[in-house]
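Sharing a chain and its predicted structure for anyone who wants a worked example. Both blocks are below, sequence first, C-alpha cells second.
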Amino acid sequence: MKKMMAICLFIVFGSVGAAAQKFALIDMDYILKNIPAYEMTNEQLSQLSMKWQNEVEAIQQEAQNMYKTYQSDLVFLSAEMKTKREEEIVKKEQEAQELKRKYFGPEGELFKRRESLMKPVQDEVYNAVKEISEANGYQLVVDRASAMSIIFASPKIDISNEVLAKLGYSK
C-alpha cells in the first residue's frame, strides 16, 4: 500500500511540474516563405539547378546519339572499331554521371551553394526564435512543418508571426 501511495504522489508531483512548462509552435515553411531573401535565394538555386541539369542532359543526349550511330553502323564496323566505339560511349555516359554527381551529389555544388546561401537566413530565424523563447519562458519550441506527429495544435501557441515581426517582416 505504501508503494502505491508513493507512486501516486510521484505521478501527482510529476504532472504538476510538467504543467508549468510552456510550449510554442512555429511553422518554419510559413516563416521562410515570408522572408524575401529566402525566396530570392530559392529562385537563384532553382535557376542554377536547371542550368546544371541542362548540362548533364546535353552530355547524356550526346551519349545516346553516339549509341544510335553505333547501332546503325554496327554492320560495317570491324571488331576493333566496335570495341573503340563502345568504350567511347561508356566514357561519355560516365562523364555524364560524374558531372551529375559533381553538381547534385550529397557533397555536390548545389548542396554547398544551398548551405552557404541559406545558412545566414536560417541562423537569423533561429536567433529570433531563441530570443522570443527566452523572453517568454518557453521550454520547448516545435516546428510544425517538420513535426509529423502533431495532429492538432492551438493557434494560440503558434509564434510564427511573432518571429517574423522580430525579423522585421511584420504580418
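Comments welcome. The CA atoms of residues 56 and 92 lie 11 Å apart.
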